[in-house]
Design a protein that fits this description.
The protein is built from 3 helices and 17 strands. The chain has 2 domains: 37-131 and 242-288, no CATH class; 132-240 and 291-295, Immunoglobulin-like, CATH 2.60.40. Strand 4 (74-78) and strand 5 (83-88) form a beta hairpin. The chain is mainly beta and 307 residues long. Strands 1, 2, 3, 4, 5, 6, 7, 8, 11, 12, 13, 15, 16 and 17 form a 14-stranded mixed beta sheet that branches. It has a 3-stranded antiparallel beta sheet with strand order 9-10-14.
């Protein structure tokens, strides 16, 4: 019964992070007097996951404009031996790696970008190295939470089992997909391993699936009502300390929502590993990953745990 109570408390905490309202605060603003070049780069050790660099320029915090993508840039990633040219494929400012590209453990990756911003050519660089995964992922499962919390049409919690390696310090981003359709990165759950450092983990909540008409409209099939035969997949990203600090700033509250895709209104005090001859924000990250799936047998499944 203690574990059932603990799981319920964790679920309530996650809901509070996702949906809580905070007390009113006073915000002092000033007109933006400069334009920032924004870089969102992510490489992984799997060909089927992200290998991209997204370029844009900043907009004022209260602007109703969307992000302004940067086109016709020269984007090159080097592993110290080979240079890989990333190309824009859909005129959206997102530059993709050559087919078959993936990052490898033990290599340091350098990003070089040359782009025209406000009529002037600028150059930017960044480096990152893939962290070792310090978690042994055993399985995931799901728990139906009913349709009453927060007036959602339906709600499920995704739970994780595994073992953490005490000798390896990692923080993680946990992303859930349904039948191959993944929730946006901004809806992924960010975790510090201090919550399970060196311990065996059982039924640790790592994501929420909420099915509402609005979510279905915004997020597509990944927000569907779960049915028998649906496949839930967890993709976990091991984050370097710098990237974790960056995401923590973007998340604001350290929880599971963030301003992503970056960076229509990214805070200018967010840490960055980018440098160049102009004002620049963002982060170039290289992540190792872990993944597992579970097939839905009963959408209304309620799991009981015994000590």
């Amino acid at each position: 019964m203690r574990r059932k109570v603990l799981i319920t408390q964790c679920i309530i905490l996650m809901l509070a992070v996702l949906y809580a309202c905070s007390e009113p605060i006073t915000v002092h603003t000033r007109k933006m007097d400069r334009t920032y070049f924004i870089v969102e780069g992510l490489l992984t050790d799997r060909e089927d996951l992200e290998q991209y660099v997204k370029l844009s320029v900043s907009v004022p915090y209260f602007s109703e404009e969307g992000i302004k993508p940067v086109h016709d840039a020269e984007v090159v990633v080097s592993d110290g031996e080979t240079e890989f040219l990333f190309t824009e494929q859909a005129a959206d400012g997102e530059y993709h790696a050559p087919e078959g590209f993936k990052a490898f453990l033990g290599k340091k990756y350098k990003l070089s970008v040359k782009a025209v911003v406000e009529g002037e050519t600028h150059q930017y660089e960044a480096e990152d190295e893939m962290p070792v995964v310090g978690f042994e992922l055993e399985k995931i499962d799901y728990l139906y939470n009913g349709n009453t919390p927060q007036k959602l049409d339906s709600l499920w919690t995704v739970l994780l089992w595994g073992k953490d390696d005490l000798s390896i310090k990692n923080n993680y981003l946990a992303c859930i997909s349904v039948n191959g359709y993944r929730l946006p990165l901004g809806s992924c759950f960010m975790m510090e391993d201090k919550y399970f450092s060196g311990k065996k983990v059982e039924a640790f909540p790592v994501g929420l699936l909420s099915q509402t008409a609005e979510n279905l409209k915004n997020n597509g099939p990944c927000a569907k009502f779960l049915e028998e035969g649906d496949v839930l997949t967890l993709d976990g990203y091991a984050l370097s300390p710098g990237y974790f600090q960056f995401l923590s700033c973007i998340h604001g509250d350290g929880g599971s929502t963030s301003n992503m895709p970056l960076m229509s209104t990214q805070p200018v005090n967010a840490p960055t590993n980018l440098h160049g001859d102009g004002y620049v924000l963002g982060y170039f990250a290289v992540c190792s990953t872990l993944s597992t799936s579970v097939t839905v047998t009963d959408p209304y499944q309620v799991i009981e745990y015994h000590p």
